[in-house]
Amino acid sequence: MNITFYRKLAYKVADSVTRNGQYTETEIKDIRYGLVCIFSDFYKTLLYLLIFTVFSLTKEFISAFIAFLLLRPFLGGYHFKSELVCIIMSFLTMAIAIFAGKIIIIPYYIQLLLIIALPIFALLIIPVKDSPKKEYRKRTGILTGLITVLLLLSDYFYMPDNIITWSVLEVYVLSVYQLLIIKYMHNM
User: What transmembrane ranges does the database entry give (predicted)?
Assistant: First the structure.
């Protein structure tokens, strides 16, 4: 089942934007695709925000969401074939980070170990498709490591629970899962 209302809306907006301009067909397709991506993420974010607000977990959702938002572009994740499954799994991922972060408090020494180990691990698992991108990989790895350290330090010093830490751990687990799936698919 595909949810298409945001796709129709994105196409209407793209058509109104490109109607008066001199755009090539490729540029129009790119604009449409970009708007579809933006509207897709926007409606899912609003849906999750609404659900977590109903349960008085707005601050916790925003903390988990920011951690995911900062790390996922660099570390990747797993994509589902169905949009409905994607929405459900994304919601469950957020819910796990929030409830695990509130219930299972990670000891300080393990948090400190994660602050050291995860950025190093990030350098090893940053996905790169071909060898000319090695310099990009190095910059991306350093940036990912810095973001990871900042997120974990903010959780360590400023948050009474471990929602951000659990979110970071989930992003890393999803990244490793994605790498294993890709490796398994290519070795078949």
Answer: 46-71, 83-100, 106-128, 140-157, 163-182
Give, for 63, the enclosing helix (H) or strand (E).
helix 58-75
Model's pTM, two decimal places? 0.73
Residues 6+ apart with CB under 8 A from 40: 6, 7
User: What does the pLDDT read at residue 153?
Assistant: 85
Cβ atoms of 85 and 135 closer than 8 Å:
no
Helical residues (DSSP H) of 104-162, grouped into ranges: 108-125, 134-158
The backbone torsions φ and ψ at residue 55, rounded to the nearest 5 degrees and listed phi first, read -95, 15
At a CB cut-off of 8 Å and minimum separation 6, what does 79 contact?
A: 86
Distance CA 155, CA 184 (A): 34
Kindly list the distances between the CA atom of residue 134 and the CA atoms of 71, 119, 137, in Å, as whole numbers in the listed order: 19, 17, 5
CA atoms within a 13 Å half-sphere pointing along the CA-CB vector of 63: 25
Across 4-22, b (16+ Cβ under 10 Å) vs e yields eebeeebbebbeeebeeee
21 φ, ψ to 5°?
-100, 170
Report how far Cα 101 is from the mean position of its chain's Cα atoms: 17
Domain boundaries, the chain: 1-48, 55-186
CB 119 within 8 A of CB 148: yes
Q: What's the burial of 171, exposed, middle or buried (CB within 10 Å: 0-12/13-18/19+)?
A: buried
pLDDT at position 55: 94
